[in-house]
C-alpha cells in the first residue's frame, strides 16, 4: 500500500560527482581502446549499483508538487552519504542496542519481524533506564504465556471449563481477553494497560483481532501467540457494554456475586467494562476488595477505550510491585509500548522507505500532529493560527527572513536541514507551512523541508488500509526530536510515548470559545493521559482527588480532570 507522494520531494542529489566523471572521461579522449571503455563502464555501473542500492526499493508515496526543497539564503544542503543496501540503520546517529537493554527477548528470529530489532535504530537511545526487575517480570511472563497460551493442553482445558459454565477453583492458568474499542491509538493504549494488569494479576493476555486490525502487529511473545483463537465462546464484542449482565459492577449490584463469594461458586467469567462514561471509568475495579474478588475468576473479558494504567498505580495492593517495575513512573507506556508493538513487515516497509527517503539525512526532525474532534470542531483558520503561534512562541522552527534578501547572515546554522513531518487527516496545514518556507528564506540560513505522508480526510476505524497508514505515521512521528500535538489525541500520546519526548500540547479552546487563549504548553511527562479517572475512595465511598495525595500523579495539561503519571 503506497501513500500519496509528498509535495516536497527529496533534495536533489549532488551532481558534482557526475560532472567530475564526465570531465575525467574527456581527458581519456580517443586514446582509450573500446575494450577499456567497456570495462570501465561495467566497473562504474557496479559501483553505482552498490552505492545507490539501498534506494532502489519503491518509495512510499506522498503528496506531489513540482517544486523542490527550498534552499534558504542560497545555501546548499549539507552533503550526506547514502548508505548501501546492506546498511539497515539510517544516516542519523542510531541506538545500537537492539534488545533495548533487555526489554526485548532475544528468542526471536530476526527475519520473523523486521521492525522488532530495527525500529529502535531510528530513534535516539531511551532517556529512561530499564528496571532489571521489569526485565525479570517480562521473561517470567513470556514463559507463563508459552505454557498457558493458545494451542496448549492447559488452554484447551480452560476453554472447556468456560464452555461448561464452571469457574475453576484453583486454575493453573488464568486469562484476560481484550476486545477492541474506538480507533487505533485508543486500542494500543488499552492493550498496554491490559498487559500491565496481566503482569500484576498473574493472567495471560489474549487479544481479539478484528479484520481492520489484522496484519498490523507482530507477535510480541516468543514461541506462542497473543491472538485469541477463533470460536471463543464469548466472542461477540457487540454485546459487551456497560449494561451487560456479566459486567462486574452489575453482578455486584444485582447480588450475583459478593466480595466473599468462593471461587467455585462464581460464574465462568467476568466482564470488565473499563470505558469512559460521563468522563469516568464505568467499572470501578481499582480497590483492593475488588481486586481480591476478581483474582478468583479464571476468565476475564475486558473492553476499554482508556489508558487505565495510571489507575492501577492507585490500587494499594499493586503500589510496591509497580514501584519496583517502574522506578520512573512516567516511563510505563514508553517501555511497555516498545515491548509490545512491532509493525509487521508490510507496515514496517512503509515506515522504513519513507524515513530513509525524506528524514534520515536531516539535522533535526519536528513533528506536528493535528486532530480535530467532532464534539469540539475548530475552524481550520483558527487551528492553523494556534499552531503557528505555538511555533513562534516555542521557537520550534527558525524565523522567516525577507524574501527579497536572499543573503543571510552566517550564524553557524547555515545549510542545516530541519524536516517537518505533519500527521493530519487534512492537507491544509502542510500546504500553508510548506508555503511559508518555500517562499521565504530563514534568518539563520537553515533549510526547512515539509512533508506529509497522507491526508485521508476522515478517520476510518473499520479500514485495514487506513489503520496501516495510521500505524506507519505513528512510528514516523515517534522518530521526531520535537513533537507538537493536538490535545486529547491518543494517536499523539502513542507517538510521543514511543519517542520518550515531552511534547508541546495544542490546547483546546474553552467550550464557549472558538480560539484557545494559550497556544500550547509543554507536557510535564511522556506518559499518556487517562481522560476518565475512576472515582476512588473505596471503603470510604467518597471521591478523592488523587492528584493531591499521590506524589507521582497529576492532572493532565490537556484534560484538566484527567490523570497522568509523572516524575518530579
Q: How many strands, what sense, and barrel or not for the largest sheet?
A: 6 strands, mixed
Largest beta sheet: what is the strand line-up? 9-8-7-10-11-12
The helix fraction, in percent, is: 25-40%
Q: What is the straight-line distance between the termini?
A: 44 Å
Tally the structural domains: 2
Helix tally?
17
Which class best fits the helix and strand makeup? alpha/beta
Task: Round the mean pLDDT to the nearest integer and report it.
Answer: 83
Residue fraction in strands: 5-15%
Q: How many strand elements?
A: 14
Globular, elongated, flat, extended or rod-shaped: what is the shape?
globular
Oligomer: single chain
**Low-pLDDT segments, ≥5 res:** 1-95
Radius of gyration: 27 Å
SSE diagram, text form:
Blueprint: H1 16-28, H2 34-52, H3 114-118, H4 132-148, H5 153-163, E1 175-179, H6 184-201, E2 204-207, H7 248-253, E3 269-274, E4 276-277, E5 280-281, H8 288-294, E6 299-304, H9 309-312, H10 319-325, H11 332-340, H12 345-359, E7 364-370, H13 380-394, E8 417-424, H14 428-439, E9 447-451, H15 464-478, E10 482-486, H16 490-499, E11 504-506, E12 520-522, H17 546-549, E13 553-555, E14 563-565
Parallel strand pairs: 1-2, 1-6, 3-6, 7-8, 7-10, 8-9, 10-11
Antiparallel strand pairs: 4-5, 11-12, 13-14
Amino acid at each position: 500500500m503506497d501513500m500519496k507522494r509528498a509535495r516536497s520531494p527529496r533534495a536533489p542529489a549532488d551532481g558534482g560527482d557526475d560532472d567530475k566523471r564526465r570531465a575525467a572521461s574527456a581527458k581519456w579522449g580517443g586514446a582509450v581502446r573500446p575494450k577499456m571503455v567497456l570495462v570501465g563502464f561495467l566497473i562504474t555501473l557496479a559501483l553505482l549499483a552498490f552505492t545507490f542500492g539501498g534506494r532502489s526499493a519503491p518509495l512510499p508515496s506522498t503528496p506531489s508538487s513540482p517544486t523542490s526543497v527550498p534552499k534558504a539564503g542560497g545555501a546548499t544542503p549539507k552533503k550526506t552519504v547514502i548508505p548501501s543496501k546492506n546498511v539497515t540503520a539510517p544516516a542519523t546517529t542510531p541506538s545500537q542496542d537492539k534488545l533495548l537493554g533487555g526489554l526485548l527477548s532475544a528468542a526471536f528470529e530476526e527475519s520473523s519481524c523486521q521492525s522488532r530489532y530495527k525500529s529502535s535504530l531510528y530513534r535516539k537511545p531511551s532517556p529512561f533506564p530499564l528496571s532489571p526487575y521489569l526485565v525479570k517480570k517480562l521473561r517470567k511472563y513470556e514463559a507463563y504465556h508459552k505454557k498457558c497460551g493458545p494451542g496448549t493442553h492447559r488452554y484447551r482445558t480452560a476453554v472447556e471449563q468456560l464452555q461448561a459454565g464452571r469457574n475453576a477453583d484453583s486454575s493453573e492458568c488464568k486469562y484476560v481477553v481484550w476486545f477492541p474499542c474506538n480507533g487505533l491509538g485508543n486500542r494500543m493504549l488499552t492493550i498496554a494497560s491490559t498487559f500491565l494488569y496481566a503482569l500484576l494479576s498473574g493472567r495471560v493476555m489474549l487479544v481479539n483481532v478484528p479484520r481492520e486490525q489484522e496484519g498490523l502487529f507482530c507477535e510480541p511473545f516468543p514461541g506462542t501467540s497473543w491472538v485469541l483463537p477463533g470460536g471463543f465462546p464469548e466472542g461477540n464484542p457487540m454485546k459487551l457494554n456497560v449494561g451487560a449482565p456479566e459486567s462486574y459492577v452489575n453482578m455486584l449490584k444485582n447480588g450475583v456475586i459478593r466480595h466473599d463469594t468462593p471461587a467455585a461458586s462464581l460464574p465462568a467469567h467476568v466482564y470488565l467494562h473499563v470505558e469512559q462514561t460521563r468522563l469516568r471509568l464505568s467499572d470501578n475495579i481499582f480497590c483492593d476488595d475488588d481486586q481480591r474478588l476478581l483474582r478468583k475468576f479464571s476468565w476475564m473479558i475486558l473492553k476499554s477505550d482508556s489508558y487505565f494504567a495510571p489507575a492501577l498505580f492507585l490500587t494499594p495492593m499493586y503500589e510496591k510491585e509497580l514501584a519496583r517495575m517502574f522506578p520512573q513512573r512516567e516511563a510505563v507506556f514508553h517501555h511497555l509500548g516498545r515491548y509490545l508493538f512491532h509493525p509487521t513487515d508490510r507496515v514496517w516497509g512503509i515506515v522504513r522507505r519513507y524515513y530513509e527517503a525524506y528524514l534520515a539525512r536531516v539535522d533535526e526532525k519536528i513533528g506536528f500532529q493535528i486532530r480535530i474532534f467532532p464534539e469540539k470542531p475548530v475552524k481550520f483558520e483558527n487551528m492553523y493560527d494556534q499552531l503557528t503561534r505555538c511555533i513562534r512562541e516555542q521557537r520550534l522552527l527558525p524565523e522567516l527572513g525577507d524574501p527579497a534578501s536572499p543573503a543571510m547572515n552566517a550564524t553557524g546554522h547555515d545549510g542545516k536541514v530541519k524536516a517537518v513531518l505533519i500527521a493530519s487527516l487534512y492537507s491544509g496545514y502542510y500546504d500553508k507551512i510548506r508555503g511559508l518556507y518555500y517562499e521565504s528564506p530563514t534568518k539563520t540560513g537553515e533549510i526547512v523541508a515539509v512533508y506529509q505522508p497522507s491526508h485521508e480526510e476522515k478517520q476510518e476505524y473499520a479500514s485495514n488500509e487506513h489503520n496501516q497508514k495510521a500505524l506507519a505515521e505513528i512510528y514516523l512521528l515517534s522518530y521526531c526530536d520535537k513533537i507538537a500535538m493536538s490535545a486529547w489525541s491518543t494517536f499523539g500520546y502513542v507517538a510521543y510515548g514511543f519517542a520518550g519526548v515531552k511534547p508541546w500540547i495544542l490546547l483546546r479552546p474553552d467550550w464557549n470559545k472558538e480560539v484557545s487563549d494559550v497556544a500550547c504548553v509543554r507536557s510535564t511527562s511522556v506518559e499518556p493521559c487517562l481522560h476518565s479517572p475512576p472515582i476512588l475512595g473505596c471503603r470510604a465511598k467518597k471521591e478523592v482527588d488523587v492528584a493531591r495525595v499521590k506524589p507521582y500523579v497529576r492532572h493532565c495539561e490537556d484534560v484538566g480532570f484527567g490523570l497522568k503519571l509523572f516524575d518530579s
